[in-house]
């Protein structure tokens, strides 16, 4: 489960836009684009992750398609680490490994380049939010299949009522999130 709440969690959470009934009726979509649009908030968001990971032994940062690329790439840059994209199926041009996972209504597949990391690499896995956990778990499995260790999975938002953070914990993948929308 997520660890203790970061210092600026409320500030960041207040700036996440909630879009009702998107992409379908009954869904409360948590939109992180306002965090990215405001320079002060974007810097605070990135710095929150950078300060958490600057003293950890990490070799690479992996980001999950697509919003995980935004945060993951900047965090990798700030930590002076390489960045690994984990993409939706069919988007990577080289030899890939693939992992299918279940969605609420269907399934999806993510892929990673077969040479994206090497055995023993310690990887930070980043996405924007944790909902059902399927994408994060599939991405972690890809990294593990290549021989890497997922040091921690990190996201801005946890939606605990959808059960993803619990499933990630059951996979024994440490998880860090800045804020959650439990009961919202």
Automatic annotation (TrEMBL):
Q: Enumerate the InterPro entries for this protein.
A: Ade_phspho_trans, Adenine_PRTase, PRTase-like, PRTase_dom
- GO CC terms, sorted: cytoplasm
EC number(s) per entry: 2.4.2.7
Molecular functions per Gene Ontology: adenine phosphoribosyltransferase activity
Asked if the keyword Transferase belongs to this entry, the reply reads yes
Which keywords, in A-to-Z order, does the entry hold? Cytoplasm, Glycosyltransferase, Purine salvage, Transferase
Judging by the UniProt lineage, the source's domain of life is Bacteria
The catalysed reaction is: AMP + diphosphate = 5-phospho-alpha-D-ribose 1-diphosphate + adenine
Q: What does the record list as GO biological process? A: adenine salvage; AMP salvage; purine ribonucleoside salvage
- Principal EC category: transferase
The family database entries (PANTHER family) matched by this protein are listed as:
ADENINE PHOSPHORIBOSYLTRANSFERASE, PHOSPHORIBOSYLTRANSFERASE DOMAIN-CONTAINING PROTEIN
Quaternary state and partners of this protein? Homodimer.
Task: Give the protein name, as stated in the record.
Answer: Adenine phosphoribosyltransferase
**Chain's gene name:** apt
């Amino acid at each position: 489960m997520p660890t203790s709440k970061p210092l600026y969690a409320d500030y960041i959470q207040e700036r996440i836009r909630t879009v009702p009934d998107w992409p379908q009726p009954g869904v409360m979509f948590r939109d992180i684009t306002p965090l990215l649009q405001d320079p002060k908030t974007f810097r605070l968001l990135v710095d929150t992750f950078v300060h958490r990971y600057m003293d950890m032994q990490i070799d690479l940062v992996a980001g999950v398609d697509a919003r995980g690329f935004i945060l993951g790439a900047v965090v990798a840059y700030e930590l002076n680490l390489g960045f690994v994209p984990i993409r939706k199926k069919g988007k990577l041009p080289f030899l890939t490994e693939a992992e299918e996972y279940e969605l609420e209504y269907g399934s999806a597949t993510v892929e990673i380049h077969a040479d994206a990391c090497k055995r023993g690499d310690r990887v930070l896995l980043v996405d924007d939010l944790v909902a059902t956990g399927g994408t994060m778990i599939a991405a972690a499995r890809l990294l593990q299949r290549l021989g890497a260790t997922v040091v921690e999975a990190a996201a801005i938002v946890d939606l605990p009522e959808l059960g993803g953070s619990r499933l990630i914990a059951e996979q024994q993948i440490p998880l860090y999130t800045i804020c959650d929308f439990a009961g919202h």
